Amino acid sequence: MKRNNRRQMPQNSQFSQILNDLTSALTFIFVALLVIALLIINPVAVTQVPEFEPLQVTTEWDSCLKGDREPGLSHADVDTWIMGTFYTATGEQVTDILGYSTRDRKTKHFILDQDDKGYRTPYPGSPQKEDEELNKEVIKSAKSTLTDGYYDINLHLFSDKGELRTQSSICVDVTVVVFKGDKSREKVVCQFTAEKNNPAILFNNRQERTVCQFEIRNGLFVEGSNEDIIQKPFITRR
Rounded to an integer, what distance in angstroms lies between the CA atom of residue 191 and that of residue 187? Predict the structure, then answer.
């Protein structure tokens, strides 16, 4: 008499299911490893989105250094200041001034992002400043945009620290950019090298010079407002 084979059918079916699952898992692992290998060989290019900065004022010195020293090793302490002149809805004039002595180095409109007191010869064990931090100051906007108004950027030679004994002047390179990262509004307002532009050359301690001026109106840079710089001292009068 033949035995009933029906009880063996579920076992065969279960074995086939396990085999199929194992095959699928191995296939998935193989494909995943293949994709990872391809990404390592040909990484996907990441599109770099420029960081938006409504305002970036950068000053660097001293390109007039003589001798073996490179720019960035000047002992001189040059301070960068900015003044914004704004008007309320009622026509009242409001000024906002930022510099190294500003509390917390921040105002309603501006931030002193990087301050520099001049190069100091390091002593054993002293922390070393990064090369990009030598003789360089940076001012940025404290807001996500620029308020309509007038902007003045001044340099102030706080102390030459002996540099003027060996050279006649302290040279400062200035770059001012508004709406950086916004292709439709980005504008280099001021960009010059001190050796070629007298406004950025300082001759005496406590000397103050206006090096850049411009106007923002309706959220845009006003063309021509950065021309014909008028000296407007506001640091030494504080």
Answer: 11
Evaluate whether 76 touches 166 at the Cβ level (below 8 Å). no
Cα distances (angstroms) measured from residue 197 to each of 79, 166, 190: 18, 21, 11
Q: Is 14 a residue whose pLDDT tops 80?
A: no
Q: Contact 139/151 with Cβ under 8 angstroms?
A: no
**66-93 confidence digits (pLDDT tens):** 777 777 889 999 999 999 999 999 999 9
CA 205 to chain centre: 28
Total residue length of the chain: 238
Q: Give the residues across from 176 on adjacent strands.
A: 57, 190
Q: What angle do CA 11, 14, 16 make, to 5 degrees?
A: 110
pLDDT beyond 70 at 12: no
Distance CA 24, CA 108 (A): 61
Tokens representing 112 are: 């002193």
CA 3, distance to chain mean position in Å, is 85
Instruction: Provide the strand spans (E) within 146-226.
Output: 149-159, 170-180, 187-192, 201-202, 208-217, 220-221
* Residue 214 tokens, joined: 């411009």
The single residue listed with the structure tokens 């002996």 is 162
Distances (CA, A) of 150 to 29, 46, 238: 63, 38, 19
